[in-house]
Every structure is written in C-alpha cells, then in structure tokens.
Amino acid sequence: MKRIKRARTMDTSFEKKLIKTVLIDTKTTAEDFEVKELRAKAAYFLLNGAPVFSVNKLEGGRYALLAAEKDFHAVRSMGTMEIEARVYEFTEDNAEVFSLLEKLKSEELGAMEEGYLMKRLVQEHGFTQDDVAALIGRSRPAVANTLRLLTLSPEVVGLVESGRLSAGHARTLVRVPKTQQYAFAEEAIKRGYSVRDMERAVKAFLTPPEVLQQEKDAKAAAKSEELKAFVERMRSVFRTKVSLIGNDKKGRIYIDYYSPEDLFRFEEFLDMIEGYGREEN
Known about the structure:
With 281 residues, the chain is an alpha/beta fold. The protein has 12 helices and 7 strands. The strands form 2 sheets. A 5-stranded mixed sheet has the order 1-5-3-4-2, covered by helices on one side. Strands 6-7 form a two-stranded antiparallel ribbon. Strand 3 (53-57) and strand 4 (63-65) form a beta hairpin. It is elongated.
C-alpha cells in the first residue's frame, strides 16, 4: 500500500444505527436538485432499497450528513422517517476531509467538481497530489490532470461545466494562452473536433512554423527511405533493373527485362503468386 506522506490522525471507526431523518443536518436542500433526478433516484431506492449513509455525530443529539446529499433528499422525498447510517465521531477538520474524500470516491461528479474538491484537499488540508491519488484510488497523473482544468480561463471552465466541452478536450488547452483558449474551444465545438484533433491543432499553434516544416520533411524522408528499400528488394528478387516514379501515395513502378529468360522468370513469379492465392481460398 502506498504510504501517505502527510501524517493525519483520523479514527474511522463507526457505529451503524437507525437515525430519524429530521435529526440530520445537510448543506443543501431538495430545491438544490432537479425534481426529475430526485424522482428517478427515489424510484430506484423503492425497488432496490435505500443506501447506508455516513453521518458525523454532533452535540445535542443531531448529526451532520457527510456525503450523498442528493441520495438523502431523494430518500426523504419518499416519506422515509428513518435511515440506516454509519455514525462517526470526527473533529470538524477530519469530518470535512472525510466528506471530501467520500464525495470523490462515490458520487457522480463532473470533472470540474472533482477538481474543486481535490483543490480543497490540497490547499485547505495540506494534502499532496500523491496523497489524494492514494486515498481515492486514482493515479497521480489523473489527479494532476483534473487539477490542471482549474487553471483554464473562466469561459472554458464554463463550457466544461455546461457539458458543451469535454474534460479531455479542455485539458489540451492548458498550454494555450488564456486569452486564446476560448476561441480554440469554440472552434473545436463548431467543427466537432475529437480530442486527437484538438491535440494536433494545439501543437500546430504552439510549434514554430520552421519546426513543423522540419517534422514534415523528416516524415517525408522516412517514407522516401522506405520506398528506396522496397525498390531495392524488388531488384534483388527479380534480378533486374527496377525504377520508381512517385511517392508513398501514388506513382509508377518500372521493371526492365533484357531477354526471354527474364520474362520467363517473371512468369514463374506470377504463377507462384496465383498458386498461393488459390491455396488460400
């Protein structure tokens, strides 16, 4: 198991018990969620049973919900008076950390929402990116990539939050100056770019023209060497002069012959090829 670099004492033992829903404090209300979403979840819970919630014990016999607020409001909308819960006794700081981690591990969040929660763990609670990755079961690069989304311009962040631009598309814009990120994003949406298309467009924008030309020339040279090798192979096999006019996309190949024996040898090659094709069928 990967060692967490930041030392933190947190007793995660709990007691499972039934608790009246009116005794549970939440940070949201049912009005904060779409009615259709709550109804859909309520219908699912009616058929499959309600989940077990995590709460923190407070003074005065009350409890604070640590995660799954949408699920809780859906259950309450069913008229449920009591829920089964895991009851923890955290300090205020540890309760906040536990809540953030639970949301990252179990809730259906958008990429930007995940980024905001990870940022809080790093900035407010002193975790490193390695810590966050280990605690929520993600790779460090995955955590780093999510946090990078928060460095984008507000306009691009808005596109991701609205669902118009995917997180994958948005990540390609991190290296683009903020003043030009939105224009790139709108162009990608308009043209229906794939993430790969975006990567190519960003690379072309950030790479000096002379470097792009050098890369193009290098690819062309590599193709040219492959064609030369192919022609040399044909010369070796046919044992005669072979020449090529064209490139890797189209062209002509000329095979010279100097005697009837050369033609007979070519015919033998064709017979071998045709015979191989008949055997395959």
